[in-house]
């Protein structure tokens, strides 16, 4: 019995889900998913709202007061919108409310149902979403397994209905083909094929606990339709719906449903999903300073475990990057926001989630085999090619260096081939040694080249490990391409032409989309050399000048009138709401000023993360913002994304115990820690004095205890 009850009642097991507030980041620019899911699950089942603007990328924003149904796939924290597939809406016939935003002057009968959303009647927990919709006299409960969703609708009227909409999606996701078929009185199947950020297809099969007694087609917009299924709820007020999805076929969706969702016991399914969340959240156990900090920490853990999302079915089949169906023994994943997550989310996986790290290797290599290059920003089997650089090379290199890759020669070959492609600016790097702004037909030339430099350095490390001296030298040299952009007259990086002349005019504060930098400016990108900090120190004039420049960076406000909407979380020119800044505070460690690192890390932890709906200062970006918090809260951060060295910051918890796999734990203790005692006084590893300001991946994975003694006075 205990296994299906709330863990809090099981005695010795901690209910980590009780510390999670999924509303954090659902307002502001957080763009987080709100609804029910399993950790890294295929299904994200939650309320679906009509997109008002950029802040509705996840299909939900806390400021909204309307809900249009409940759909089964969702992005989380991204800067672009998509998915929102297979929408269900329970309602009372005769009480329909029609949204005017769907009306079209050419088709006067276009319509879509909506209900008013009252947050006081809404609740969300890991694996569970509930809401009352008084407009239709219905209570909604939603939960999921990995590949299925379970809806429970409790009606008050004697005649009720459920709208199934296979056409509506999120943002600019346009339906190109769809099908909806009532198979028998309790089963429906269909699919949705759409074009948007990703061109994707979702098949579904739904089973109802009560028989369908009628149906009516409803015209949504243009050539898109939905079907209202009618039910007799004069006696049995509850209608449950089990929905299985797949990117392969309706048959696979049915197989997923049969394998994962037996019976109609909603509470049992939710209890099992809750157990899954507790297992994942329990990978790090903390002793926080207070309850607020505990909420922020475990909500960050939760948000770092929604993406990547499962993409393969129970039988191992999945839709490949070549549009064909494939089979794999390892689980395959999608929602690979690699430009964001290579910085903290994937390094966090390598510490506490060996299963995910291994599956990502398989996912990357299979995508490479199918499309000829490693992924950039992969979504539902589709390469969006979004964001600059070659981020999968960085991730795969890190996994190679940490021992997660069985066939390193094959991985090295994939990285080399992906790094020698002619597109994405690589052709210019091969020809000129950098990407000249006057030759490239794409913007953001400085960012694209500097991101490629990080990937090249990561690749060179693997080549050296494998004894490939030629590749190690070639890509090692190419990793210095960023130096071409450094202008000593302004002591910042900036765009230049093929003949070496600088682009004029130059505005160091300009952070506008499709300029020379991707979601940032010259101030922020000057520091984007995590793979070669020593050369950056030398380039900026040595430790003293480097430190002074960093100090200025964190106080220089300048002109912010040309900042893009996603350049947020500002401390001077530092923009924590966007990923290229995430390592910068830790650069103080490299010039002997760990105390300055501690000051800025603590400032970010306490001033830019909150326990309310605006509690994430920028896009959550598929877990990266939260992963930064998780690592930094325990005092660690991997600056070089493929080196396995974690820098010390300023731990904000009293204690953290990481399950690092193999039956081992690694415990971080911060003695005498408080909001005032932010400075590390001394460090011990397994009871012995530990020199330096970092610790290696191997030392962490070996298990043991890292002890910080904290104080209110800086100590070098």
Give the key terms.
about 725 residues; alpha+beta; Beta-galactosidase, Chain A, domain 5; GH92 mannosidase fold; 6-stranded mixed sheet; globular; disordered N terminus
Q: So what's the overall shape?
A: globular
Q: What is the domain tally?
A: 2
Relative helix content? 25-40%
> Nearest-angstrom radius of gyration?
26 Å
CATH fold call of the largest domain = GH92 mannosidase fold
CATH architecture of the largest domain: 2-Layer Sandwich
The end-to-end distance, rounded to whole angstroms, is 55 Å
Q: Please name the fourth-level CATH homologous superfamily of the largest domain.
A: GH92 mannosidase domain
Poorly predicted segments: 1-11, 103-108
CATH class of the largest domain: Alpha Beta
The largest beta-sheet arranges its strands as: 7-8-9-10-17-14-13-12
What integer is the average pLDDT? 94
Number of strands: 37
Strand-pairing-aware structural class: alpha+beta
Task: Specify the number of helices.
Answer: 17
β-strand percent reads 15-25%
Major sheet characteristics:
8 strands, antiparallel
What does this entry look like structurally?
A hairpin with a 2-residue loop joins strand 7 (122-125) and strand 8 (128-133). This protein starts with 35 loop residues before the first strand and ends in a 5-residue tail after the last strand. The strands form eleven sheets. It has an eight-stranded antiparallel beta sheet with strand order 7-8-9-10-17-14-13-12. A six-stranded mixed beta sheet has the order 18-32-33-37-34-35. Helices cover 25% and strands 24% of the residues. With 716 residues, the chain is α+β, with helices and mostly antiparallel strands. The protein contains 17 helices and 37 strands. It folds into two domains: 24-280, Beta-galactosidase, Chain A, domain 5 (Distorted Sandwich); 292-312 and 335-711, GH92 mannosidase fold.
